[in-house]
User: Which sequence fits this backbone?
């Protein structure tokens, strides 16, 4: 046995991935081979605690490795204004595959330490006209190229980065809420009161993570730039069991949902991708693929808790279903 | 005529207002301070617990605070506009109300912005507006406009106070505390009513009044733009700026009439604030209510006629959830003042005041209906959210602070009236001097 | 210390048993609900080093979604030929239940006559968890990736072969191979096919942007092959046509600096108004001066 020959690759998987991304991939091969495994682990990791089994057969709960990679990968407020160089992030949401499984919502809430009732990403039940079939419509922040929220911000607390991401710096925000009223997509939420979780300063605040939150300021979907810097998909895209959410870089012209990696331009051309409320001129960076050739019947989306169904009670279609006693 | 003698007479006439407070007046102070105290307590709760104590939530992020803000600032701008215009009229009648309007202008411009501050989540970071300014933001424009306007209005108010301060300074037998006399002395800045001083003061007052009119228009336009420059279906309207100016004038004239009535009855100033003032103000209110009705109609009519999806949704909300509010704001609030003021026989002091009350209340509701239902009907229907986040109802904290704002306005008004005569003595003197000169001139011509 | 403990396994296990006696009974139930998953796989990496990876994850027998990684378990890797056994190394599993061992290109393996290498991973077991082993047999496949421009046609070609005992290259047959290019977040498949007679060739798509310099990282990968397991090869080439989608938007409504006309209009308005205020105040000072002079005269 030659001990000195043994190369122990004791670095954890995340470092492995990060290194791979930063040095433009030399060893990432191993990582992608086990992508299925990663997906399962990540969902457990994005929470604050993970469960482990010790060799002695004891199940223990330990703190998850911090996602922000603090301190070596901490992004300060000033750095977070620049964005990741030469990237133009884009999201494509395939409406044909969505069945309101809500994994995206939950994983986003976990990843951003949001409460049960706070959503960066909402699932709307849309019906374009009376004849058309309704469909589930995940709605994150659209990270517009002409963002009305950024225009109206009096302090520059919300800003447009070169990599397409619109971020909020909660340390700069004065809470005037003008951005909320100017966003036509209702993408922003406000911290109405103090919460104990805001006190958690184990990891210093960065606009890229939005953690910890601050009372009296704005929050919204941020495309998870902390994960992107590590070469990982945003929480929602990673968590979706149906592969509804594709994410990638327009400069590279490649988007992925974790399982499938495709050319962005081809996807949009072939599937008639569109942007919601294009006529408003906000130039969103979230594209939708029309809900044609559905993979799941719409009703599958009602396979959720009662209080979630209640959230759709004002939708005409749901009212009709209720009348018929179907839900 | 000996004007110094006349000055003393007038001071004597008005001095009771400055020298003592009646029992009723003291009761007023007590009630107002009580209301303000409740407001301060409400503010304390809001400051400690955050905005969750209000009725505002993620969809309706602006509540009655912003409505009070538009309302008060609107009164102020219309006051500025009217004082500016009044300056170019002649006649003794204008002096009876000019000072009332100027005080309304300044006070509502102090109270209004307090409400926008209540709307802000992080008051401790207010200075960021100056450290990290972005001039693309209409809020930045608004802050600049309000501050500039407030300073302008203060200067203007002060200019018109100087001669009165001088008169009060020179009246040695005034029974007011010594500190108050000292304040008069300092604020009068050595004004001796010499011809050159008088001329100089008149010149700068004249320029300032033009300035004030222009600023009122610009500033209220900017305020309207806070709404109309967004993409929201109910706000993104090209007529919003003129609509807001008319609306501001509508409420402004209404508040002026109500104030005139209250001052006239409580201080027995029937000699100065006469029926002619109410009739005149009533006619102005009539014209503005017609304009306001016209703007309101064309705003909602064009939405209804072109029936874009989101506009229709807004109208449906207005006519279902807000039916009575809509009827009161846009039918009763416009038509009742028009009917009362249109017929000559109906124009009495009391009925004009009643019309003004209806107009002011209707206008406040009109502002409510512009702000709240629009936020409740965004482009993307409100779904997948907590049920209590859909509709807005103001909490007691918000009402307490609203009433505290009104109380603060009245309290400050009363304090100013304790300090300077509400009818400008110098104005009356000026007018009499002017009359005398004219008679003299006529006499010389006749010779 | 560690060595001592290993020397006396009986004592060690006693110590462990003593330390854990209170909790073990309570936890034993829990562990018995889980089925252990112990898998070994290997990847031949582009630098010809070989990565051995064990994933050690327990799955709840009733709820298959409930998975717990076994952390900090020592995994030993062996190369076995007949009776001969060489310890390649020992690695503890991470919090994800993964143990990885990288063997350099010049590692000496025990190879049988067919050219097969037998690799084994072993978890020695504890009081609560049984011993686990996993064994794989691999053959060493060499892949050469060539990116050349033939008559201005960008051509990707691979040659795949094994080397026999005599050092002769034997072309590989019937191997499924896929080609990828590396993107920021994943790899995109651009071609797949079967290697025949030791080679495969295709024309590279002409419209792939690559990174800002047009650089592309092209991968050839054999995945989950019965004999060769995973083999990867990659190469960098400047074949991309980068097309930046960034439109330089200076002085817009949403940039940090506003359009210039906004500054000028605002400045003109403010200067106008404030000049008037200053003028007014100057006049007030003049009034005061006159008043003071009058006072002095009296």
Assistant:
């Amino acid at each position: 046995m030659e001990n000195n020959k043994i190369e122990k690759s004791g670095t954890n998987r995340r470092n492995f991935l990060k290194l791979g991304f930063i040095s433009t991939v030399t060893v990432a091969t191993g990582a992608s081979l086990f992508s299925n495994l990663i997906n399962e682990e990540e969902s457990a990791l994005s929470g604050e605690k993970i469960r482990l089994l010790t060799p002695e057969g004891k199940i223990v709960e330990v703190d998850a490795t911090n996602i922000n990679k603090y301190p070596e990968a901490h992004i300060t407020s000033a750095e977070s204004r620049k964005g990741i160089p030469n990237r133009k992030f884009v999201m494509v949401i395939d409406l044909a595959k969505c069945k309101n499984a809500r994994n995206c919502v939950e994983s986003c809430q976990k990843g951003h330490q949001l409460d049960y009732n706070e959503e960066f990403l909402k699932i709307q039940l849309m019906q374009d006209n009376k004849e058309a079939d309704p469909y589930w419509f995940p709605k994150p922040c659209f990270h517009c190229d002409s963002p009305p929220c950024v225009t109206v911000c009096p302090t520059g607390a919300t800003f447009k980065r070169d990599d397409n991401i619109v971020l909020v710096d909660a340390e700069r925000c004065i809470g005037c809420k003008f951005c909320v009223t100017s966003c036509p997509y209702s993408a922003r939420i406000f911290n109405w009161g103090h919460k104990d979780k805001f006190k958690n300063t184990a990891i210093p605040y960065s606009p890229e993570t939005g953690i910890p939150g601050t009372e009296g300021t704005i929050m919204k979907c941020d495309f998870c730039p902390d994960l992107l810097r590590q070469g990982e998909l945003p929480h929602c895209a990673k968590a979706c069991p149906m592969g509804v959410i594709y994410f990638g870089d327009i400069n590279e012209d490649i988007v992925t949902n974790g399982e499938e990696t495709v050319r962005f331009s081809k996807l949009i051309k072939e599937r008639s991708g569109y942007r919601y409320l294009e006529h408003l001129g906000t130039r969103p960076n979230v594209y939708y693929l029309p809900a044609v050739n559905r993979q799941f019947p719409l009703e599958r989306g009602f396979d959720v808790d009662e209080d979630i169904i209640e959230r759709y009670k004002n939708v005409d279609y749901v009212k009709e279903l209720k009348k018929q006693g179907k839900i | 005529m000996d004007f110094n003698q006349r000055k003393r007479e007038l001071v004597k006439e008005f001095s009771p207002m400055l020298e003592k407070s009646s029992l009723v007046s003291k009761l007023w102070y007590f009630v107002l301070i009580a209301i303000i105290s409740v407001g301060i307590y409400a503010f304390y709760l809001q400051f400690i617990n955050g905005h969750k104590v209000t009725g505002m939530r993620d969809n309706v992020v602006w509540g009655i605070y912003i409505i009070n803000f538009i309302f008060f600032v609107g009164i102020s701008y219309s006051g500025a506009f009217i004082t500016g215009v009044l300056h170019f009229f002649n006649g003794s009648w204008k002096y009876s109300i000019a000072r009332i309007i100027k005080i309304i202008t300044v006070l509502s411009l102090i109270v209004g912005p307090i409400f926008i501050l209540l709307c802000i989540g992080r008051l401790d970071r207010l200075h960021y507006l100056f450290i990290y300014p972005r001039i693309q933001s209409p809020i930045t424009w608004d802050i600049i406009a309000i501050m500039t306007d407030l300073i302008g209005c203060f200067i203007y108010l002060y200019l018109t106070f100087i001669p009165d301060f001088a008169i009060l300074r020179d009246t040695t037998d005034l029974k007011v505390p010594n500190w108050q006399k000292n304040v008069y002395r300092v604020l009068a800045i050595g004004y001796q009513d010499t011809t050159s001083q008088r001329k100089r003061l008149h010149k700068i007052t004249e320029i300032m009044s033009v300035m004030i009119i222009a600023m009122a228009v610009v500033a209220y336009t900017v305020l309207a733009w806070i709404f109309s420059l967004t993409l929201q279906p109910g706000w993104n309207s090209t007529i919003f700026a003129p609509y807001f100016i008319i609306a501001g004038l509508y409420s402004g004239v209404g508040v002026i009439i109500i104030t005139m009535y209250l001052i006239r009855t409580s201080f027995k100033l029937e000699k100065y604030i006469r029926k002619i003032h109410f009739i005149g103000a009533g006619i102005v209110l009539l014209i503005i209510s017609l304009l306001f009705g016209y703007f309101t109609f064309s705003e909602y009519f064009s939405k209804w006629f072109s029936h874009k999806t989101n506009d229709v949704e807004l109208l449906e909300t207005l006519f279902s959830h807000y039916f009575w509010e809509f009827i009161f704001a846009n039918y009763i609030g416009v038509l009742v003042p028009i009917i009362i003021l249109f017929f000559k026989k109906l124009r009495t002091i009391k009925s004009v005041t009643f019309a003004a009350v209806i107009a002011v209340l209707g206008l406040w509701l009109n502002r409510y209906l512009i702000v709240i239902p629009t936020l409740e009907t965004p482009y993307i229907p409100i779904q997948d959210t907590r049920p209590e986040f859909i509709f807005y109802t103001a909490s007691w904290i918000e009402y307490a602070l609203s009433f505290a704002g009104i109380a603060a306005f009245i309290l400050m008004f009363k304090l100013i009236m304790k300090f300077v005569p509400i009818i400008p003595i110098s104005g009356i003197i000026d007018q009499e001097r002017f009359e005398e000169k004219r008679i003299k001139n006529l006499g010389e011509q006749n010779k | 210390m560690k060595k001592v403990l290993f020397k006396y396994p009986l004592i060690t296990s006693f110590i462990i048993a003593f330390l854990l006696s209170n909790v073990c009974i309570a936890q034993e139930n829990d562990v018995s609900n889980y089925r252990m998953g112990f898998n070994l796989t290997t990847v031949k990496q582009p630098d010809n080093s070989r990565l051995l990876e064990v994933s050690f994850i327990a799955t709840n027998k009733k709820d298959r979604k409930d998975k717990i990684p076994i952390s900090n378990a020592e995994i030993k890797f062996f190369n076995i030929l007949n009776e001969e056994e060489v310890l390649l190394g020992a690695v503890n599993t991470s919090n994800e239940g993964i143990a990885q061992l990288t063997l350099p290109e010049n590692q000496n393996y025990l190879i049988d006559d067919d050219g097969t290498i037998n690799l084994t991973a072993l978890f020695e077991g504890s009081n609560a968890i049984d011993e686990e082993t996993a064994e794989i047999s691999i053959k060493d496949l060499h892949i050469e990736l060539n990116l050349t421009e033939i008559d201005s046609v960008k051509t990707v070609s691979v040659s795949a072969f094994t080397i026999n005992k005599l050092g002769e290259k034997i072309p590989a047959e019937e191997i499924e191979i896929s080609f990828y290019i590396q993107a920021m977040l994943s790899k995109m498949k651009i071609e797949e096919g079967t290697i025949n007679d030791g080679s495969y060739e295709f024309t590279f798509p002409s419209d792939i942007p690559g990174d800002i310099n047009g650089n592309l990282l092209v991968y050839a990968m054999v995945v989950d092959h019965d004999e060769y397991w995973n083999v990867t090869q990659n190469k960098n080439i400047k074949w991309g046509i980068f097309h930046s989608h960034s439109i330089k938007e200076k002085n817009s409504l949403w940039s940090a600096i506003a359009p210039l006309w906004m500054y000028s209009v605002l400045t003109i308005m403010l200067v106008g108004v404030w000049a008037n205020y200053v003028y007014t105040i100057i006049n007030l000072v003049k009034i005061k001066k006159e008043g003071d002079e009058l006072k002095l005269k009296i």
Notes: Chain B has a mean pLDDT of 91. Chain B touches chain A through 46 residues (CB under 8 Å). Residues 1-229+393-423 of chain B form one domain.
